[in-house]
Write a structure and sequence with these properties.
Blueprint (H helix, E strand, L loop, with lengths): L7 E5 L5 H12 L2 E7 L3 H13 L4 E5 L5 H15 L4 E4 L14 H29 L2 E5 L3 H4 L5 H21 L4 E7 L9 H10 L8 H13 L7 E4 L6
Parallel strand pairs: 1-2, 1-4, 2-3, 4-5, 5-6, 6-7
Length: 242
């Protein structure tokens, strides 16, 4: 896959752990400097910064609670001050937890919607002036729960369905200067995940395997470079939604 043009700066939310970390490191390997966002995982974020620097790229770790608009604004202000530009925003920070319908609380609803939908919306708003200058790209993370709808995870499914519509609306709102796309992963397993996740998913997906962080990173790089694609939701699920 071709290397991203230099110099490009990417900001990845939730980049201290799991998919956010994998995506950040892949972007660095492709030639990007990185803003590593984290909320409370400072040690892990510092480790990602170190890994990015080993790849010969610059990195800045910034803590922010993305449920707070003031902290979102500060995150992007620090990115602009340090790098002077922004080319790619990856809205990957999210939460995922069960909410049996009869026991779902208002606090759980707010927690799901704040992290998974409110945060990427206002991160896009804060990033837009920088991305317009660079004719950049936003890549949001939805998931197949936003397409299929999962009983027992209704706030989560609604939040991710909202991300899909947010992506489409922003693609119109921010065109032609900024492209906006989304990735909808299926089950992505990582070391330490419960083995039953993989066993259960194999029964549901035609490709008979779970996804890997590399599968998602490949999709990110594709969308980052796809100059004539906007408003698209790329489903990376081994055929789960078929």
């Amino acid at each position: 896959m071709s290397e991203l043009p230099n110099p490009r700066v990417a900001l990845v939310t939730g980049a201290g752990k799991r998919l956010g970390r994998a995506v950040a490191l892949r972007l660095a390997a492709e030639g990007c400097d990185l803003v590593i966002h984290y909320r409370s995982s400072e040690r892990e974020a510092r480790e990602v910064v170190s890994e990015v620097e080993k790849l010969g790229r610059r990195a800045l770790a910034v803590s922010a609670d993305l449920a707070q608009l003031a902290e979102i604004k500060n995150l992007f202000a620090q990115a602009a001050q340090y790098f002077g530009r922004l080319d790619i925003l990856i809205n990957s920070a999210a939460n995922f937890f069960a909410t049996p319908f009869a026991q779902t609380t208002e606090a759980q609803w707010n927690r799901a919607l704040d992290s998974n939908l409110k945060a990427p919306c206002f991160c896009a708003q804060a990033a837009a002036p920088l991305l317009k200058s660079s004719r950049g790209v936003i890549i949001n993370f939805a998931d197949v729960g936003g397409i299929l709808g999962w009983p027992g995870f209704i706030p989560h499914s609604i939040s991710k369905a909202g991300v899909i519509m947010l992506t489409r609306a922003l693609a119109k709102e921010l065109a032609p200067e900024i492209r906006v796309n989304a990735i909808a992963p299926g089950t992505i397993t990582m070391p330490g995940d419960p083995p039953e996740w993989q066993r259960d998913f194999i029964k549901l997906a035609p490709l008979e395997r779970t996804g890997t962080p590399a599968d998602i990173a490949d999709a990110v790089i594709f969308l980052a470079n796809a100059k004539f694609i906007t408003g698209h939701v790329l489903v990376v699920d081994g055929g789960r939604v078929l």
